[in-house]
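Justification of resources, computational component.

The compute hours requested in this renewal are based largely on the per-chain cost of generating structure records like the one below. Each record pairs the submitted sequence with a full structure-token output. That output is archived, and it is also reused by downstream analysis tasks.
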Amino acid sequence: MRLNAKFDNMKSIKFTITKNFIILMGIIISIIIGVQRFIMGSMLRSSITKVISEGEKVVVAGVISKALNRTTMYIIVISIVIIIIGAIWIWKNFGRTARLLNGLRLHIEYLTNGVYHYKIKEKYFKREDEIGAICVALDKMQKSTIEMIKDLKSLTEDLNGQSGSLSNVSEELTCATGDISQAISNIAQGISGETMDIEVIIGRMSEFNKLLEDNIKDIDNLSGIANEVDKNANESNAELKELRKSMEDFNKLFQVFLGTIETMNTDIKKVDDITDLINNVAEQTNLLALNAAIEAARAGAAGLGFTVVASEIRKLAEKTKESSVSINHLIADVLNSSENLVSKTDEMSMELQNQKLGVDKSIVSFDVISNSIGDMNPKIKMLVKRANLISEDSNKIVMKIQNLSVVNEEICNSAEEITASAENTNTSSAEILKYSVSLKDNAGVTTNYINKFKLDGVAEEE
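The structure output for this chain reads:
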């Protein structure tokens, strides 16, 4: 597997050396140009000040030549000094890198020889160039190899133990094959006795299926009766609700009728008061007619006509009084009758209320019956379903028991084959024992190779 050893290319050795070289050359060129210009300017200025006329150009040229030669010498000397300094710096820089690479080479040689307890210093992991990435990758490889060797050692120890266990198992298998042969013989004898028991079980299961079918029919009949009861209860409940509604409507009309009677009693009492007033008026009229007759008698022949009128008025007043008395008696009889009617209507109202309560109780009872039947129907259906499932399962059981009888015969036939296989198993167990011994020897050889790796020791850093 390729390790993830990323690093910054901007900080690699190649980039660092190139950068340092460019910086060094730039410094050298800058120094050369700067020194040259400085020296030449100084020398030219000093030389020009000495030249006075045109005729002295040869002298000036010689002076400039000398100045350039002197400047070149200065530049050469300065460049040599700078190059020497740069060479020393590069030598020291690459010297440390060379020592680090040599240390990595030695560490790899240790790993090649199986020495894995030496560690790389932590400070090298902090480098951000190729060497730092190599150190990180090498450390990861070392740790991964140590883990694999430890796992391989553990697996080898397990393999060694399992090979011993396999040897023991093969020996036990040899003993077990003899026991298996004896057990198979006993099983064959037991199966022959179980065949008769299976026939008895089949007969009883058939009787059970018949009883179960009868129960299913009874449950179906019960479900039909329950549905009929539920239907009748719902119809009776609806009729009772209609009856209750009719009684409520009748009670409302009856209350209106009762109010009418009470109003009529009040009006009759007012009529009684009016008849009393009429009676008083009749008495006053009779009294006035009597006074008029007396005054007419005093008047003599002149008051004779008035006497006749007064007599008629008295007769009318007496008839009015008699009529008012008759009306009073009639009103008294009507009031008595209305009071009796009010009393009877109160009793009738109470009876209607009691009948309404009875109807309400009947409605509640029918609701309870309907709800109970509604709850019972799913249970009956579930019971029928389960009974059918039980019937199906019992039929399957009978078939399986019948198949078991056939299987018993096959088992008896297979017992002989198993006995032969047990002998072959005994032979195979001997071969397994031989291979387990060979496997144990190979595990020992693997252990010796693993022990050559030195995982424990002083963590001496490179």
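The helical segments are 13-48, 57-112, 130-299, 304-451. The radius of gyration is 69 Å.
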